[in-house]
C-alpha cells in the first residue's frame, strides 16, 4: 500500500475555517518572535534540535508567503474526490522552509495539517510515527514506574512535608519502622504463645526493644527525577506529533521541547547528588543549588527573545554543554569520598551506561546515520532520530537503576556509611 495514501479522513469544514487552522502562523504570531527563533539557529526537529544549524527562512513578509504556501499545501495535501478530505504525505522538496531539517529523509512528511489530523496521525504511518511512539512508550514506562513506587513508598508525602515540616522525614519514618518492628515482635510473641503455653508467655511478654534500624531515606529527589523524565518524554512526543501543524506551533513546541530537555537534565542530578551527599548538607546545597540555577538560567534564556538572538548562540551552546559537564564535578567528588564503598562500582556502571547512551544517541543525531548513507531508505523506520530517542530512554532507565541503588544504600546505612 502506498504510505502516502494511508491515512484518516476528516470532516468537511468551511474552507475559511480550515485555512485559519492551517495558516495560524501567518496571523497569530509576532514577527519579532519568529525572528528571534530564526536567528537563534534552532532547527525544526524536536528533541535536541538545538544541535542543528539549519535556519528556517521566515518572518515578516515571509509569513505572508507562508500563509499562501499553507493554502497551497492544504489544497495539495487534500486527496481529490469522494467529497471528504484526506491529508496525504508529501516529499522533502514540497515542504515549507521551516520544516526542512533532514534532507536524507525524503518522503512521508506531514505538512501544515490541522490539529485534529495531526492528532490522529498518531495511528498513521509517516516519518514521525516512531519518533512520537518511542518517547510516548518511554513516558508510559516512567508513569508505571512512578505509580509502582508511589504505591510501595508512602514517603512520597515528604515532597510536601519537606517544605512544611523540614525535619519530619526521619522522625516519621523512624516511627513507621519502629511500629513495624513492634508488630513483628507481637506476631512472634503470639506464635510463641501457641507453642510454649501461657506460663512461658508471661516471661516472653516483656516488650522487646526495637532493633535500631536506620531511617528510610526521603524519596522526593527520586520523584523529582521521575517527574522531569516524564515531562521531557511527553513534551518530546507532543512536539513530534503536532510540529507539522503550523510554523507558529512548531516554534512553540520546539521551545517546550528544549525546556523539557533542560528539566530532564536538571532533575536527573537530584537523586545522585542528594543521596551521595545526604550527610554533607553543604555540598548538597552547593551542587543542587548550582545545577538548579544553571537550569533556571537556561530556561530563561530559551524563553527570552532578547537572549535568543544570534549574538548569544555561543552563549546558549555553552549553557547546554555546561549543564552536562557539570555532572563531572560531583561525580569525581563522590568517587573520592566513597572510594571504598561496595556500591560505588555498581552505581558507576549504571551511570556509565547512562552517559554512553546519551553520547551514542547524540552522535547518531548529529551525524544523521544511517539515512545519510541511503537517503530515502529509512524514512519510516530506522533513521537517526528514532535511534536517538531509543538511546535517550535507555539512558534514563540506566539512571533510574542507579537511583534505586542509591536509595537502597541510604535506606540501609543512613549516614553511617
Ligand atoms: Zn525528538
UniProtKB/TrEMBL annotation:
Region (Disordered): 1-30
GO annotations of cellular component type: membrane
Main location class: membrane
An example Gene Ontology molecular-function term: signaling receptor activity
Membrane topology: Multi-pass membrane protein
Highest taxon above the source species: Eukaryota
Ligand binding (Zn(2+)): 240, 385, 389
Transmembrane feature ranges: 130-151, 222-244, 256-277, 283-307, 319-340, 346-367, 387-407
Single Gene Ontology BP annotation: response to hormone
Protein localization: Membrane
UniProt keywords, alphabetically: Membrane, Metal-binding, Transmembrane, Transmembrane helix, Zinc
Protein's name in the database: Heptahelical transmembrane protein 1
Phylogenetic placement of the source organism: Eukaryota, Viridiplantae, Streptophyta, Embryophyta, Tracheophyta
